[in-house]
Amino acid sequence: MIELAKELEGVRSVAIAGHIRPDGDAIGSCLGLYHYLKKNYPEIEAAVYLEKIPRAYHIIPGVDEVRHEIPQEIDCDLFFCLDCADEFRLGDAGAFRKQAKRTICIDHHISNSGFGDVDYIVPDASSTSELVVRILEEEKIPFEAAEALYMGIVHDTGVFRHSCTSPETMEMAARLMRRGIDGSKIINATYYDKSYYQRLIHGKALMESTLLEDGKVIFSFVRRKEMDFFDVETSDLDGIVETLVGTYGVEVAIFLYETEPDMNKVSMRSKSLVDVSRVAQQFGGGGHVRAAGCNMKGTAYEVLQQLLAPIKSQLEGGEQ
Ligand code: AMP
Ligand code: MN
Ligand code: MN
Questions:
Q1: Phi first, then psi: what are they for 233, rounded to 5°?
Q2: Which of 14, 45, 49, 254 falls between 20 and 30 A from 237, CA-CA?
């Protein structure tokens, strides 16, 4: 556990960053910690650095204060690296890891081997946001921080549904609710509400999905030109892989979208038999046992064939 007050003694400047293409947990944990520092340590100059924040998260306070450009000259006493399994996944914010006087990593990725001066890595935790709540003093959590952190927990637990949701997760969420937030509003606005075109592309991906391996694996793929046609961004595809894995009899869902010609972002979800983080790691990615991802070159068919081999082997009990 990190003793935050002690870590902040004598600190003048703090930078906070999460992984590239930030998701709910990366955004929520970074902004939650940011609001907490701003409120309780006004003498510290704190800043959050993240890549572009998807539309759905714009109701979270402080999104407009997030910086997207890394300064040329870095003068940073303490760098918080949140929800990020390795230095590479920090993108440009990796500069802080190299130049800050001290780095604290807070994360829950099983593939994170620890690259800070202080590491607080708990693979069993639902989310980095949950871990951030654990290190904060409950009565000092401002409303804005509570909204952001609650959103982070909601997203990584699939609204308290995934198996990573523990009694402690609920206890941390309860601490945040006691700050007076409207949990229902945050869940709907950032997780469930979609535009009409987002609904259409979800429907298309489901319509065109294929069952493989006696119905144990489900696969779907969205092409760049389809995303352009529906005018959706990559974050608008969030949720497709979760719907796919919730199909009767399915053990593993594989969802790809094209990031550029012949290059794909792979998302995998597993119900109970397969450790998809091991599969993703084999192809340079990472994540968690039940949710993992990687980037892979080739046509959708080629990528699928490569992924199926280790998945089949785990399904047949060859490796587990
Ligand atoms: P996603 O399928 O993108 O929602 O990601 C599921 C989980 O896997 C998240 O915890 C991600 O942080 C992790 N993940 C996704 N893509 C990668 C990648 N290329 N490298 C490492 N971890 C990843
Ligand atoms: Mn994340
Ligand atoms: Mn996370």
A1: -100, 170
A2: 49
